[in-house]
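thread from #wetlab-drylab

HS: before we spend reagent money on co-crystallization trials with pyridoxal-5'-phosphate, can we at least see a predicted complex? here's what I'd submit
DV: go for it
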Amino acid sequence: MESKIWLSTPHMSGKEQSYINNAFETNWIAPLGPHVNGFESDIQNYLKEDSHVAALCSGTAAIHLGLILLNIGKDDEVICQSKTFSASANPIIYQGATPVFVDSEADTWNMCPEQLEIAIKDRISKGKTPKAIIAVHLYGMPYKVEAIHKIAKAYNIPVLEDSAEALGSSYKSVKCGTFGDIAILSFNGNKIITTSGGGAIVTKDLKLKEKAVFLATQAREKAVEYLHTTIGYNYRLSNVLAGIGRGQMEVLDDRVAARRRNYEFYKDSFKAIDELRFIDEPSDYFSNRWLSCMLTPSETVREGIRTALEASNIETRPLWKPMHQQPIFKDAPQYLNGVSDDLFEKGLCLPSGSNLTENELNRVTSAIKTYFRA
Ligand SMILES: *Cc1c(COP(=O)(O)O)cnc(C)c1O
C-alpha cells in the first residue's frame, strides 16, 4: 500500500524551531510572553486596516469571546451560515442563545444575502431582532462582503466574521479577517498555517481587544488579591505555540501560493472530464484555496470517487454537512433555498496541503481519472 495522502496537514518551514528554542531559553513557557505579543503584531501587520489582534487557544474560543463581546446572552437569536463547520455555531449554544441558520448562494457557497434578509425580516416579525450574524469564508472563499454587510448595517446587526479558513484571502485587496465588527482566525493543525492549536480574535478597537484578553485570562481585575467581578475564561495562547505561529507567519504567502497551485493543478487535470466542476473566484475575490473542492454530478458519483480514493489510501471528504442537517441543531429556525443541501450531496474536498509533492498530486488525479475510465 502506498503512503497515506491526507486532506491537509501541518507544514512547518523550519523557522518555527528557533522561536521555540528562544521560548525555552528564556523560560517563557506560559500563556503569555514575547512570542504572544510578537505573533499578534505579525498578524496585525499582515491584515492591516488598523486591526487589533488577541491570540487565543483556538478559533472556537475566539468565536465564544466574540459573542460575549457582542453581548449575546440567554435566549438571544444569532444568525449563522448553515454551510460551515460546527465550531461556527456551537458557541451560540454556550451562551444559551439560539442559532438561526441561513443557506448559501452558488457563487461563493457562503451566506446567501437574499435568504439573510428574509430571515431577518421574519425573525423581526416574530418579535425578535437577531443580535448578531456569523458569516463564514468557507474553504477560503470570501463571502459576499458588500451585500452581507449592507444588509447587516440596514438592520443595525453586528457581523462576526468567521475567517478561520481564510487567512490570506482577500476581497477587493482587503484581507479577510478585517470586515466584521469582530473577526476570528484559527491556527488549528489542518488550517493554512498552524500553531498546533490556536486562534485569534480581531477587533477594530483596542479597548475591545483588551477586553478579549481580560476575559481570556480569567477576568482578573487589577488588584493584588484575586478579585473577580466578571466570569472569566482560560483562553489565551501559549508563548511556545505562539512561537510556532511566528515562524508560520514568515511563510504564509508561500502557503497561499502553494494551495492556489493545487487548485489550478486539479482544475487543469480534470478539464476533459465534463462531470467535474470547479467554481472560479468571482472578480475582486481572492481565495487562499485552503481546500480544493470540486462538484460531481451526484451523491453516488461523489461517494464513488471518495471510496475509490480511500482504497488508494487517499483522504477526501464531502463538503461540510450543513448545520440545519445536524441532529444537534434540528430544532433551530432555518431559512433554506436548497443550495447547501445540493453542495453537500455533490461536493468533494481533495487533498490540499501546501506540502503535497508532485508525485502525491499525480496519485490523486490518476486515481480520479481511473474512476471515470472504469
Ligand atoms: C476550524 C474552524 C473553526 C474553529 O477553529 P478551531 O481553532 O479548530 O477551534 C471555526 N470555524 C470554521 C469555519 C473552521 O473551519
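DV: Residues 58-60, 84-85, 87-88, 136, 162, 164-165, 186, 188, 199 surround pyridoxal-5'-phosphate (CB under 6 Å).
HS: ok that's useful, forwarding to the group
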